[in-house]
Write a structure and sequence with these properties.
By secondary structure, the protein is an all-alpha fold. The chain folds into three domains: 14-58; 64-109; 113-173. The chain has helices at residues 14-27, 32-41, 46-58, 64-78, 83-92, 97-109, 113-125, 135-147, 152-166. The protein is elongated.
Length: 174
């Protein structure tokens, strides 16, 4: 990938760092932290990196708000992740907490979270006849959905509703 040290000299001017970053940004929208990390891997001096990122932010080539919204839409939509997992993903790419929360709130205002959880549950139960038969199956499915970013209380509610619907085992039976 582009973030490995090149065999050439590291970018030592702001102009060279910006040119390198623009090449990456032409392929994919990156957060300031991702650009900073890539420039660091290229051997770019910290002061040059800082000034290049400031310049690129000023031209809106780097826009963490835009990146946060875009990545949140992909995580929630295509990857069907819950709110907590999307927030964690945004933080992992260097998006600050406030920006990440705003993006997640905006994206999830457009998403049917209960429907998203139901579809995730359907996928988890596929191949087991849509029935949870044992406490260990309940715990396994519950843990998987919580890891996917859905609130524990909502996961339990969905699993209990599914169990009542299908007459299968559920936690309240114990």
């Amino acid at each position: 990938m582009h973030d490995r040290p090149s065999h050439h000299h590291p970018p030592v001017t702001v102009q060279a760092a910006c040119a390198l970053a623009m090449g990456w940004l032409a392929n994919r929208d990156l957060s300031a932290a991702e650009v900073r990390q890539r420039l660091h891997h290229q051997g770019c001096p910290d002061d040059v990196t800082r000034r290049a990122i400031e310049y690129l932010k000023g031209t809106h080539a780097i826009d963490d708000e835009r990146v946060a919204l875009s990545r949140a839409r992909v995580e929630a939509g295509s990857r069907r992740r819950g709110r907590d997992r999307v927030l964690l993903r945004l933080r992992s790419i260097g998006i600050d907490d406030e920006t990440a929360r705003r993006a997640v709130d905006a994206v999830f205002a457009e998403v049917d979270e209960a429907g998203l959880l139901d579809r995730a549950l359907e996928r988890r139960l596929k191949g087991v006849e849509d029935i949870i038969r044992t406490p260990s199956e309940f715990r396994r499915v519950y843990a998987a959905l919580v890891r996917q970013g859905f609130p524990p209380s909502e996961v339990k509610r969905a699993l209990d509703a599914r169990a009542k619907q299908s007459g299968s085992w559920h936690e309240e039976d114990t």
